[in-house]
Design brief:
Number of strands of chain B: 4
Distance between the termini of chain A: 20 Å
CATH class of chain B: Alpha Beta
CATH architecture of chain B: 3-Layer(aba) Sandwich
Largest sheet of chain A: 3 strands, antiparallel
Shape of chain A: globular
Strand order of the largest sheet of chain A: 2-3-4
Number of domains of chain B: 1
Largest sheet of chain B: 4 strands, mixed
InterPro entries (chain B): DSBA-like_thioredoxin_dom, Thioredoxin-like_sf
Helix content of chain A: under 10%
Order of helices and strands of chain A: EEEE
Order of helices and strands of chain B: EHEHHHHHHHEEH
Organism (chain B): Streptomyces chlorus
Oligomer: heterodimer
Number of strands of chain A: 4
Protein name (chain B): DsbA family protein
Number of helices of chain B: 9
CATH topology of chain B: Glutaredoxin
Chain lengths: 75, 237
C-alpha cells in the first residue's frame, strides 16, 4: 500500500495532534490512531478509514486498496 | 454574537471531480438530518488535478492509468469498488460515461452560485452531472446550462465565467487550503475549530455537530470567527 496522501515518500506519517504554538490550536486531539492528512490548528475528528482524494487520485485508507488511484501530496 | 441557537458553520473544501466528495456530501447530509439542528454549509474550491486538460480525450480509466501509471484493469477494478460504495449512498456513478476535465471553471461557477444564494443547489447538480450523467463540466456552455436548471441566470453566469469574475475567489480558496495544510478532499471545518478529513461516516459528522452544540451550551460566549480566513457561513441547510 502506498504512503498516505500528504505523506511524502519516506516521510513520517503526520501526527494528528495540534501544535502547541498555534494560537487557535485546541489543547488535545481526539483521535487515538492516525488520521487522513489534515491541517494543523484544527482538532481532527474521525478515523483513518475514510476515503479521500488528493492530486487527482483517491484512496480508501484502511481497506488496503487504493481507490481510483493512489493519492500523493498535492505539492 | 454566536448563541446556542445560531447555526453551526461548516466549511467544505471539495472538487466536483472527487468521488469521495460526493459520497461525503451524502453522508454529511444524513448527519445533519440526524443532528436535527441548524447548520450552514459553504463550499470552497480545491482543484484536484489542475494539470488536467479541459478536453481530455479518453475515459476515466485512461486518465487514471496514464496519470498514475497503473494497469487499466487495476484502475477499472478500483473504480468498480468506489462505484459500489457510492451506490450504498444512493449514488449512481457511471465512470464509463465520466468526462474527465479541468474543474477550474466549475469552481468559478460555484462561487458565482454562492453569490446568488444557490451554491448548494449547484454543487449537487454538478456532482450528479459529472459522476452520474457524463456531462462535460469543463465547458462554460455546459456549466451555464446546468446552472439554469437550478435557477441561476445562464447569461449572467456566462458573463462571469468569461470575465473571470470569480477566478480570484477560487484561488483564495485554494490558497487557504494550502495554508491550512489541507492536502486531500473532502475536508470539513466545523465552527472553525474541528477538522474532518475524508468521507467519514454520518455518525462521525453528527457526533461533531452534537459536540459543538454541547460546547456552546457549556460556554455560551461569543465564538471565534469561522475557519480563520474563510468567509462566514453561506447557504443554510
Amino acid at each position: 500500500m502506498s504512503p498516505a496522501p500528504g505523506t511524502p515518500e519516506g516521510a513520517a506519517t503526520p501526527e494528528h495532534t495540534e501544535r502547541s504554538n498555534t494560537p487557535e490550536a485546541p489543547e488535545t486531539a481526539v483521535a487515538s490512531r492516525p488520521l487522513p492528512p489534515g491541517p494543523e490548528g484544527f482538532q481532527l475528528l474521525g478515523d483513518e478509514t475514510a476515503g479521500y482524494c488528493a492530486d487527482g487520485a483517491c484512496v480508501l485508507p484502511g481497506v488496503g486498496e487504493p481507490g481510483p488511484a493512489e493519492g500523493r501530496p498535492t505539492d | 454574537m454566536t448563541t446556542p441557537a445560531s447555526p453551526i458553520s461548516v466549511h467544505v473544501w471539495s472538487d466536483i471531480a472527487c468521488p469521495w466528495c460526493y459520497i461525503g456530501k451524502r453522508r454529511f447530509e444524513r448527519a445533519v438530518e440526524q443532528f436535527g439542528g441548524e447548520v450552514t454549509v459553504e463550499y470552497h474550491s480545491f482543484e484536484l488535478a489542475p494539470d488536467t486538460p479541459v478536453d481530455f480525450e479518453g475515459s476515466e480509466v485512461d486518465f487514471l492509468s496514464r496519470h498514475k501509471g497503473m494497469p487499466k484493469a487495476q484502475v477499472a477494478q478500483m473504480l468498480e469498488h468506489v462505484t459500489e460504495l457510492a451506490a450504498a449512498e444512493g449514488l449512481d456513478y457511471d465512470f464509463d460515461a465520466v468526462r474527465h476535465t479541468k474543474t477550474l471553471l466549475a469552481h468559478q461557477a460555484l462561487h458565482h452560485a454562492k453569490a446568488e444564494g444557490k451554491q448548494l443547489e449547484l454543487v449537487e447538480r454538478l456532482f450528479a452531472a459529472y459522476f452520474e450523467e457524463g456531462r462535460h463540466t469543463g465547458r462554460a456552455e455546459e456549466l451555464t446550462a446546468l446552472a439554469a436548471e437550478v435557477g441561476l441566470d445562464p447569461e449572467k453566469l456566462g458573463e462571469a465565467l468569461g470575465a473571470g469574475t470569480h477566478a480570484e475567489a477560487v484561488q483564495q480558496d485554494i490558497d487557504t487550503a494550502r495554508r491550512y495544510g489541507i492536502q486531500g478532499v473532502p475536508f470539513y471545518v466545523i465552527e472553525g475549530k474541528y477538522g474532518i478529513s475524508g468521507a467519514q461516516s454520518s455518525e462521525t459528522f453528527a457526533s461533531a455537530l452534537r459536540r459543538v452544540t454541547e460546547e456552546r451550551a457549556q460556554n455560551p460566549e461569543p465564538s471565534q470567527s469561522p475557519a480563520r480566513g474563510a468567509a462566514p457561513a453561506g447557504a443554510r441547510r
